[in-house]
Description:
mainly alpha, 9 helices, Glycerol uptake facilitator protein
Amino acid sequence: xxxxxxxxxxxxxxxxxxxxxxxxxxxxxxxxxxxxxxxxxxxxxxxxxxxxxxxxxxxxxxxxxxxxxxxxxxxxxxxxxxxxxxxxxxxxxxxxxxxxxxxxxxxxxxxxxxxxxxxxxxxxxxxxxxxxxxxxxxxxxxxxxxxxxxxxxxxxxxxxxxxxxxxxxxxxxxxxxxxxxxxxxxxxxxxxxxxxxxxxxxxxxxxxxxxxxxxxxxxxxxxxxxxxxxxxxxxxxxxxxxxxxx
Length: 246
């Protein structure tokens, strides 16, 4: 498929990341109000809404940008040649800005202050390990589907994996530096205190790096074309012809 102009891809990443944060944080607010005091049910409602919403927004924005919404996904894609490094670098601020905007929108939709810095401390060794494992698993799921020609299943698989990881990790599977930053701006069920965010982001980067090693071991013949088909197919990175823009 032909590659969309960079500004369109950045807009898709910005909007998709904003919807992702709004879904995660907004469903957290709703869960607290619908099931007060029942943490298990609150988490189930939050996880179900996130899994379903992630499936939908991948389908919405994927044909334009590949629906990464996650810097770890974008840079892993660059490692395997599916995305230019400079485009991955450009995706990052769009993803972060989108997640912050989505957090503000969720706060406002539930009649809270537009920005309320979270006080929820999540920085423990168990949470750090959870984020390493959650991120590693997410990246492996995405690239395994691409390598085996099953990228059409990625929207459902990614949503299902994140929904499950809410429960099999103690951190509730952020697995995304951009959403980690966005969730700092909401003092709600889904928030994270700024002091906890660096450990989460470090764990996510480590998980992504480990995932690249696992993918290289399991799928040594992964091509740039296959990498470009992660989540929703997009054009692989390539050198521009003389005189043509990249």
